[in-house]
Write a structure and sequence with these properties.
Blueprint lengths: L2 H18 L4 H20 L1 H7 L6 H12 L5 H12 L5 H22 L3 H16 L2 H8 L5 H12 L5 H11 L7 H15 L2 E8 L5 H15 L2 E8 L7 E5 L2 E4 L2 H13 L1
Parallel strand pairs: 1-2
Antiparallel strand pairs: 1-3, 3-4
């Protein structure tokens, strides 16, 4: 994010925080849904994105244009938050969409935090991602941009009904729309990371050949916390194909100590 974009985003966050500081969890959900509805509008209206980021127009004029478009349709917190973004400066119209989406997700996470369910929602998002990746037919169905979003949302709602928290369901729906222009599964992973960051945790994706016991998980988490200087949330996937050892990915960092990697390296060495 450029300095200009960061300043515009920070101003919108400040406005949103001021407008929602006494809001209940339910009110935060309503504001989040409204902000995300603006993101949906911007995603389908490139001309509007360009108009709201047009550098030849004064920021106040862009903000007023947005207010006139949504007058009477959204609550004050959502209107003024996005108007603050429109009043700022963005180097590309797509960056405005990214900022609106992020604010919507941040507000959803604030509602989850309000009811003390961040850790549970983080884990449920990850587990659902595992379910999807383990079912190729489901993965294709949920990721198909040609399929109506309403149909995919209904499918997810049916799959998750009574099994996850409300915040999890809403965030999965955000992922279905391709959060930040990502694929569905990549969107889920990013939302897991944002949920962890909300409670000041770093996500570590761990692949093992068999489940770790509690003591092993605690030792690994402690070691990674020492390396990264913050609490680490382990997301463990069991894959017998790696034979043994462990693979850990934290952000762009990959630590691959699996037997499968060593065997592949040995095969390559013999092939030379």
């Amino acid at each position: 994010m450029s300095t200009v974009n960061r300043e515009s985003y920070a101003a919108a966050v400040e406005r949103l925080t001021a407008d929602t500081q006494t809001a209940t969890a339910a009110q935060l959900v309503t504001t989040a849904d409204e902000i995300l509805s603006v993101a949906r509008l911007l995603r389908g209206q490139p001309r509007l994105r360009r108009a709201l980021t047009d550098p030849s127009r004064a920021g106040a004029d862009r903000a007023e244009l947005f207010r006139s478009l949504v007058a009477g349709k959204l609550g004050p917190a959502a209107v003024e938050t996005v108007a603050t973004l429109a009043n700022g400066r963005f180097t590309r119209p797509a960056e405005l969409l990214d900022a609106v989406e992020r604010l919507g997700v941040d507000t959803l996470l604030a509602s989850v935090d309000k009811v003390g369910e961040l850790a549970e929602v983080e884990d449920e998002l990850f587990r659902f991602g595992q379910v999807v990746s383990g079912d190729p037919e489901l993965a294709v169905t949920l990721s198909d941009p040609g399929a109506a979003i309403d149909r995919r949302v209904k499918l997810v709602q049916d799959l998750l009904k009574g099994k996850v928290r409300a915040g999890t369901g809403r965030l999965v729906e955000v992922a279905l729309e391709g959060y930040g222009g990502r694929s569905f599964e990549a969107s889920l992973s990013r939302l897991v990371e944002l949920t962890a960051a909300k409670r000041d945790h770093q996500v570590a994706y761990v692949t093992v050949a068999k489940l770790l016991d509690d003591a092993e998980e605690q030792r690994l988490a402690a070691k990674l916390s020492d390396i990264y200087g913050r609490q680490v949330s382990l997301k463990v996937d069991v894959d017998p194909a790696i034979i043994g050892g462990v693979s850990v990915r934290v952000g762009p960092d990959l630590y691959d100590g699996t037997i499968l990697r060593r065997l592949n390296e040995a095969r390559q060495a013999f092939a030379k």
